[in-house]
Amino acid sequence: MPKNTKVTQREHSSEPVTESVADLLSLEHPMDYKSSQMSMGLSPGSTAPVKALLPSPDPDAEDGRPAWNNKLEYILAQVGFSVGLGNVWRFPYLCQKNGGGAYLVPYFILLLLIGIPLFFLELAVGQRIRRGSIGVWNYVYPRLGGIGVSSLMVCGFVGLYYNVIIGWSIFYFFQSFQYPLPWAECPLRRNGTQAIVEPECEKSSATTYFWYRQTLNITSTIDDTGGLNWKMTLSLLVAWIMVCLAVIKGIQSSGKVMYFSSLFPYVVLFCFLVRGLMLKGAVDGIAHMFTPKLEKMLEPQVWREAATQVFFALGLGFGGVIAFSSYNKRDNNCHFDAALVSIINFVTSILATLVVFAVLGFKANVMNEKCVVDNAEKILGYLNSGVLSRELIPPHINFSHLSAQDYAEMYGVIKTVKEDSFGQLGLDACVLEDELNKAVQGTGLAFIAFTEAMTHFPASPFWSVMFFFMLINLGLGSMIGTMTGITTPILDAFKIRKEILCVVCCIIAFLLGLLFVQRSGNYFVTMFDDYSAGLPLTVVVILENVSVAWIYGTKRFMQDLEDMLGFRPYSFYYYMWRYVSPAVLVVLIVATVIEMAVSPAGYNAWVESEGSERFQSYPPWALAMAYALIVVAMLPLPLVFIARHFNLISDGSNKLSVSYRKGMMKDISNLEEQDEQRFILSKNPSEAPSPMPAHRAYLGPGGTQEMTNTNYGTSTKTGYQNIGSPESEL
Description:
mainly alpha; Hydantoin permease; SNS_sf; transmembrane
């Protein structure tokens, strides 16, 4: 080794190490890429393989990075992060709205085209570089380092309102320990000596009233904040304490939490499915779900919503997937993990949809029977008052045991005979299909429709406790991944104690979350859900795709995967990453922008006097706030690009941790000693035999030409570039 290198100077100096990896390698001898650490080959003339110049994957290695206790904990963590509340209350709604069983076809196709490939990409880069979202994209292409910052900000926005939903579930969970359930009947109001039903409840329903008035105590507009709702404030505090305790000890602790939080929801869903199938009308609900409306498959809106659901169901772009995989061993089979977690996510969505439609089928039958009874009483009143003739009633109909079929027959006769004055009678058709078509999603499904159905269950408090405990666990699993996506890149960039960082983040998040526990807080939850994540995350993921497939290079990335996994991934991924996935994401971005431009920006406000929701447009300040969420989340992307393009800030690509540099020094010192030994033995390093076969270059899918390469320190075409350059830091 030349005596003027910084490595040799360092051996004779007591000064602390300040050189970057690029500085250390800039004066070294050129090295062929096949013998480089990126290809896991041998150094020229060495008789032993050189250690990879990436942080060691072992928890007890030089970089000291934590690792999962076992593979099962890691899989459960990824499943817990990807399987969330959206699988229970978003997927069934989309399935019902977009053609039942026909919706599953575009969903599954898009899962294969963009879901699994992009999920595999995030797992691979996290495992390869062993950093959080900020560090990973600084390594791949520093000018796009804003990707990680945008991911972190979106995680922050989503975490703020997502934990509020967990707080709502906690409130309902504790309210479930009473019989009858508090939302089973409308409360009574004393008016002197008389007790009357609460007018707001009478105009809506018991479950709707409990949700809007007794839980949220909601205002009529977003302008009227109404002050803090102290019940929801305490619930939010409990939710953040739970999340903080789960995250504060790191992945060893959160991995153990995942054993329960990831598996328990499946136990509850299975129990609900068995119980739901025993309910009257459950088969009607499931049949309604799987009855395909094939004409829906030709509508672009169905494909757009399917793509969006695939995108968010796997947690792409949040940084949680990258953060979790960064704690893996470098040779972990992340290809298998990507396929397994994606399939589990899809099966969970189907299972949850079966449960939801079984319960909603039961609820539809109950509501339809109630409709028949109420309208039969109206008809009896008309018969007794002489408005209707008894000759209109078929002779076989018995009002004391009136079935839905009997009522439908009687309704048809009356409508035909009294065609001119039928509208004045105020009779409803009471068709089961109409009840099944009443689509509900989100909070409307969990806190209104499902709670109403459970009031008709035998032992309803037990099922209510189980349901909301399941929601808490689903939310907790996703929040652990979201918080890991925030803390991991910060811990990688700064030397901060994990416990202090987690506590500070949770305190700040709780204080900011007070916005959502005002009486008008539900309107802000809707705003953040609509604007803070959708478009910014889609832009983040397409830039992730482009930076790996087009800037770093798909062939080079496939070669890295082959070195890392021990086998070459299917050519399918090559074409998906390079062409199909970016194209689909561009179409999705355009469709999202068009929808935002065409659809009016607003929210569903609760009107107390009417006992119903009414759509209202956002006031100017709220509209500005909504669009500010999009701008703030995407702002790091152009800012970081411009700043690094004009060298205003460091590119961050060669700033490794101290332990990383120490590992580098040790490796290079070992190389020096080996060269000295060969010199003493009068052997040229280039003549040393290699105990391993030459590494085969990746030819690309169907390729016959080997990648062009040159030595380090010079230009390259498709081979690995200078390790000091931003493009080669992966």
